[in-house]
Design a protein that fits this description.
heterodimer, A: mainly alpha, 16 helices, 0% strand, flat, B: 242 residues
């Protein structure tokens, strides 16, 4: 327990009075006033059904993600501030090849949507966990946690093999991606925000600063992802899908892509998969494996937390591995 | 973005989430069970905003902080992530524009999503017996109406145009949020009142008849209900079935 006395530093002269300039608070106030004044015209221009639907889906994805984002951000702040790095070196096997599967299975304990797992994985890497293990955790936790598996069982009544196939395939993909990173990944692709300002701060101020930063940062990227997912929901009509379902190979790739584009929360995607009745079970398994690992909002958040160079390599690689794993394991397990 | 603006954004996001979750507005976007989590998240966001303001406005604290943030090389030119400005979009969406729940437009673009159940328990008591749209459609399609028999059934949903000049009763099902919404559609047979409008909410009473239509979007069956009574009702607070 460190007791810090916040003394106003007398050595650093507080500027007597800074010159007034247009700062972000003023811009913020101006934006808000402008939108309130223009509310009538904006509302009228949003009145078409397509734009209304877009706005509803956009607001819904964010409303739904907000509790999970806050939960993940608080957990990552706890990891960053209160859990000593030595904890993870003791908890995980020291050899990365073994740390990867351990971290994948540990994903079972984080009962949240994928929005929570990105900031948590970021905090793990910053806390010295092998990136390969942190990425395995990042991919596994939204796909294999108990809530997701139960909702899968509810969505596919009388087909428990779907739950098993989903858990097994997701774990396989998470481990493969961890090992792939271990073998080919380059640290230089990662561009993590430095947290120098948290060092030397008292614990609670550091905790709040970490929560504030992560909510604004990951939340901002979540907005980008939610907006693009809502565009897809409005622009791509479901009737297109029917033509793709007939070809078994095309069907798997098509549902994998659909999972990326729709960005549905992993707790709900099983219900959507269950409703895609014209597709084979293997194609629907691809939908369930890809969705929690790669989608528009996850890509935006990964780019924000780990850097764009990382996300541009990691997300496509995950997509390919997930599609191949679903295509290989689906016929065996289903 | 400086710390004070960040604090204001956090207060706005938290406030918008709290308002939506306490007024019932959230029911247009997410399932009902999420309410406690939304309230908790809203309270936490407001707290973070207040703490930020409090640390910021204490004398002698402000300048010191801005310096530390200047060079973290992550697009934070003025102490905070620029991307945070985007959080204003959902705030304005929730507070000012408050889009309605998904309705007939979205339902028309998505195929009817009825799943089979392994067994169909006898209908509960009541005349008419009130069923969810999913329950009726599932019994009608996959149980061939065996468990429906000659009973009078009451359904609630909104009206929409169907194939071949028919009227459908539809309801969206949501398991997490409106992004995963799937419609359940039931075709209305028999005498319908004049002047039915798209998106008008109805409570209907009717019987199973065995007739079916095909959904043009995904080729799934849409069962009929032969309507004996139609009541126009106001939009219910909980528009989704979950």
């Amino acid at each position: 327990m460190t007791l810090t006395q916040e003394t106003p530093a007398p050595s650093e002269p507080v500027p007597a009075r800074r010159r007034w300039r247009v700062g972000s608070v003023e811009v913020l106030a101006a934006v808000l006033v402008l939108v309130v004044l223009l509310r009538g015209p904006i509302t009228r221009s949003l009145a078409t059904p397509a734009l209304q639907t877009w706005l509803t889906v956009f607001v819904s994805v964010l409303t739904q993600a907000m509790p999970f984002l806050v939960f993940g951000v608080v957990l990552s702040a706890i990891i960053a501030v209160f859990v000593p790095p030595s904890f993870f070196t003791r908890a995980l096997p020291s050899h990365p090849a073994f740390a990867v599967p351990t971290a994948s299975v540990a994903g079972v304990v984080l009962p949240g949507c994928e929005c929570a797992s990105v900031p948590v994985a970021g905090a793990l890497v910053r806390r010295g966990v092998t990136p390969a293990a942190a990425f395995a955790f990042l991919l596994a936790s939204p796909a294999v946690n108990p809530i997701v598996l139960i909702s899968t069982a509810v969505a596919f009544p009388g087909q428990p093999q779907m739950v098993i196939a989903r858990a097994v395939t997701s774990l396989v993909v998470a481990c493969l991606m961890g090992w792939l990173w271990q073998a080919f990944g380059k640290g230089s692709w990662l561009r993590m925000p430095s947290r120098a300002h948290l060092e030397g701060m008292a614990k609670w101020p550091a905790f709040w600063a970490s929560v504030r930063h992560d909510v604004l940062h990951a939340g901002g990227f979540l907005v980008i992802g939610a907006a693009s997912a809502a565009i897809i929901a409005v622009v791509v009509p479901q009737s297109w899908l029917a033509h793709l379902a007939a070809n078994p190979v095309l069907a798997i790739v098509a549902l994998g892509l659909l999972a990326v584009l729709l960005s549905i929360c992993s707790e709900a995607d099983a219900f959507v998969a269950a409703s895609l009745t014209q597709f084979s079970l293997t194609a629907r398994l691809a939908f369930l494996v890809v969705g929690p690992m790669v989608d528009l909002k996850l890509f935006a958040m990964q780019a924000g937390i780990f850097g764009r160079r990382f996300a541009l390599r990691f997300a496509p690689a995950t997509f390919v591995v997930a599609i191949l794993a679903a295509a290989a394991l689906g016929p065996v397990l289903l | 973005m400086n710390k004070q603006a960040q604090a204001v954004i956090l207060l706005l996001v938290g406030g918008a989430v709290l308002r939506a979750s306490l007024t019932g507005q959230y029911l247009n976007y997410v399932k009902a069970g999420l309410q406690p989590y939304l309230v908790a998240a809203g309270v936490l966001l407001v707290l973070v905003g207040l703490f930020t303001l409090w640390y910021e406005l204490r004398p002698g604290h402000r300048h010191e902080h801005e310096h530390e943030h200047e060079h973290d090389g992550h697009g934070h030119a003025h102490g905070g992530p620029k991307v945070a400005w985007l959080l204003l979009a959902p705030v304005l969406g929730l507070l000012l524009f408050a889009p309605p729940a998904l309705g007939s437009y979205a339902a028309g673009r998505t195929g009817s999503a009825v799943t089979a159940r392994s067994e169909y328990a006898p209908l509960p008591a009541g005349d008419p017996v009130r069923l969810t749209m999913l329950d009726y459609a599932s019994r009608a399609i996959f149980d061939r109406g065996a468990s429906l028999g000659e009973r009078r059934i009451e359904l609630t949903g909104f009206a929409m145009r169907g194939p071949q000049d028919s009227w459908l009763l539809a309801r969206m099902m949501v398991s997490c949020c409106a992004a995963d919404a799937r419609p359940v559609k039931v075709a209305l047979g028999g005498e319908l009142p004049e002047g039915l409008a798209d998106q008008q909410w109805l409570r209907i009473t009717g019987k199973y008849s065995g007739r079916e239509l095909q959904d043009q979007v995904n080729g799934e069956a849409i069962p009929f209900i032969e309507v004996s009574e139609v009541t126009l009702i106001p939009v219910p607070q909980e528009q989704y079935e979950s």
